[in-house]
Amino acid sequence: MTGFLVKRLLQALVVLFLVTIIVFLLLHSLPGGPARAILGPKGTPQQIAHFNEVQGYNNPLPVQYWDYLVRLVHGDLGESYKLNESVSSLLGQRLPKTLILTVMSTVLAVIIAVPLGLLQAVRRGKPADYVMTALAFLAYATPVFFLGLIFIIVFSQAIPLFPAEAPQGTSIGSIFSGFSGMVLPIVTMAFGIIAMFSRYMRSATLDNLTEEYVRTAMAKGQSSRRILARHVLRNALIPLVTLLGLYLPTLFSGALVVESMFNYPGMGLLFWNAAQGSDFPVLLGVTLVVGVATVIGSLVTDIVYALLDPRIRSVS
Fold it and tell me: Torsion angle, CA of 19/24/30/34, rounded to 10 degrees?
């Protein structure tokens, strides 16, 4: 197990290194260079020259990349030219809120999708399976923004159960004190995840129900519930764990739409506002954080995958 963890950790470090290179090159691939992109079309040649001198953009690219890595190590992601605040500070304020939204929506989705997928697999080919399959495809095909609009119209206007705007406080406590405002964003994000996860769970369960160990357990007289709970469920969860780790970038894109719709002050809304204002340091800072989170999610997925299936670490 130790060798497996070391190997995966080294691979993750290499990927993180490549992520920093890509993000660094994104800034220098902007039309006209970083100075022109940040100062805009009204920037004079003198202003651009001064900006390049101050920011070190006149240095060779390897020197600039080394300086960029040094700043990253010290937690310096640059300065927002629109908000006059460090990108690290902005991300530090918004990241916990996005994590709360994505974690709660994912937990809700898993709690619903796992038993739903099991039920579909057990009742394969029956009316309940067809109905749930149709609903899953409909939910998966519905755009997040359209689903959010429906929830706002129905549950905030027609039936005023929940507010249409998420909690606006700057602290984490304000989110939980106004938790009714979190219901619609969480459900909106969870809806599509439930549809996808339940389909994967159904497929994985069906694959395991045909395995030899299931027939052996049935021959020993074990009940169907016991076989599902003790044997099939653990093996069927393996593909779902993999999907969870690789689904992080999609979760962020969903959070971007949901946070913009419900005016939720997280990283998604920060990215949206930065994109509208061409605030490139913020855009690249968010991109870097999402890339790092994806790598970490994949690493955690590999570890959990190995814990669930000892065969993985034995051949790795």
Answer: 160
CB 82 within 8 A of CB 277: yes
**How far is residue 117's CA from residue 194's CA, in Å, rounded to a whole number?**
10
For residue 96, pLDDT over 70 is answered with yes
- Residue range 28-65, pLDDT digits in tens: 776 666 777 677 677 777 777 877 777 777 778 888 88
For 153-188, what is each residue's pLDDT tens digit?
Answer: 998 888 888 888 888 776 677 777 778 888 898 988
Amino acid of residue 42: K
As given in the structure block, the two tokens for residue 20 are 């920093």
Distances (CA, A) of 157 to 144, 150, 248: 19, 10, 32
Tokens of 33: 């260079």
44 close to 242: Cβ distance less than 8 angstroms = no
> pTM for the full model?
0.78
Percentages (nearest 5) of helix, strand, coil residues in the chain? 80, 0, 20
- Quote the tokens at residue 260: 């913009």
Instruction: Give kind and range of the element (H or E) at residue 96.
Output: helix 87-122
> What φ, ψ does residue 85 adopt, rounded to 5°?
-145, 150
Yes or no: say if 26 and 287 are a contact pair by the CB < 8 Å rule.
yes
E strands of 43-103, at which residues?
79-80, 85-86
Q: Which has the closest alpha carbon to 92: 226, 247, 231, 267?
A: 267
Using CA atoms, how far apart are residues 288 and 290, in angstroms rounded to an integer?
Answer: 5
Spatial neighbors of 165 by CB under 8 A, at least 6 apart, are 181, 262, 263
CB 201 within 8 A of CB 240: yes
